[in-house]
Structures are given as structure tokens and as C-alpha cells.
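User: Design a sequence. Structure:
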């Protein structure tokens, strides 16, 4: 009976291990996406700095630069919101990974305990089969 319990806990641990691998893959993807977004934000900020540092201009150039700066600000806002969302998502993934790791460890511990209990029961059963005379002599 405990062998079945041990197998059950081992299967639960394997299921959690597979889920951990999937979450780790998701976390890597989120890290890559966050890195890409950080790069885009820095590029947009550099472009914005170049546009604001321009010298004497005509009215049409000022209007054009103002329009471009507005577009850049919109893109920066979008990228910052996306980054915030991904960081929140990354935190959720990390928290879920910690929970799964804990659950997997507990399942492995239970499986080991069930195996040990099963082994002890078998040893006790074998010891009970040995005649009393042989146990005293040995």
C-alpha cells in the first residue's frame, strides 16, 4: 500500500518538475522581452534628447519636432507600461516557481518517507518469519 503512495508522490513531484521547466522557459522569455524593451526605451530617450537639443529652427521645423516629440512620448509611455506589466508578470511567474519547487520538494519527501516505511514493514515482516530460535542464536 505504501509503495502505491510512494509512486503517487513521485508522480506528483515529476508533474511539478515539468511545470517548473515550463515556467522557467516563460521566465526566460520574459527576461528577454524586458531586455528588448529596456533597449527600446533607451533608444527612444536618446532620440528624444537629440530632438530637444536642436538649435535655431523655423516655425515649421518646430511644429515638426513637436509632433515627433509627441510621438516619441507616446511610444515611451507604451513601452514603460509594457515593461511594468511584464515585470509584474515576471514576479508572478517567479512566485509560482517558488510555490511549485516547495510542493515538489514536499512530494519527494513524502515519497521517500513512504518508501522507507514500506522497507521497514518488509524488514519487520521478514524478521517475524525467522524462527525465534534462530533470532536468539544470531
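Assistant: Done.
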Amino acid at each position: 500500500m505504501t509503495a502505491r503512495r510512494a509512486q503517487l508522490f513521485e508522480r506528483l513531484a515529476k508533474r511539478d518538475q515539468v511545470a517548473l521547466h515550463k515556467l522557467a522557459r516563460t521566465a526566460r522569455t520574459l527576461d528577454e522581452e524586458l531586455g528588448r524593451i529596456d533597449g527600446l526605451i533607451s533608444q527612444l530617450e536618446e532620440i528624444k534628447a537629440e530632438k530637444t537639443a536642436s538649435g535655431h529652427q523655423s516655425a515649421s521645423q518646430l511644429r515638426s519636432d513637436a509632433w515627433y516629440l509627441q510621438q516619441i512620448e507616446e511610444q515611451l509611455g507604451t513601452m514603460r507600461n509594457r515593461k511594468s506589466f511584464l515585470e509584474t508578470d515576471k514576479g508572478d511567474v517567479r512566485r509560482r516557481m517558488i510555490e511549485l519547487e516547495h510542493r515538489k520538494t514536499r512530494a519527494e519527501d513524502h515519497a521517500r518517507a513512504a518508501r522507507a516505511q514500506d522497507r521497514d514493514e518488509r524488514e519487520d515482516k521478514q524478521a517475524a518469519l525467522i524462527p525465534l530460535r534462530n533470532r536468539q542464536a544470531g
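Residues 2 and 117 are 7 Å apart (CA to CA). The two ends are 31 Å apart (CA to CA).
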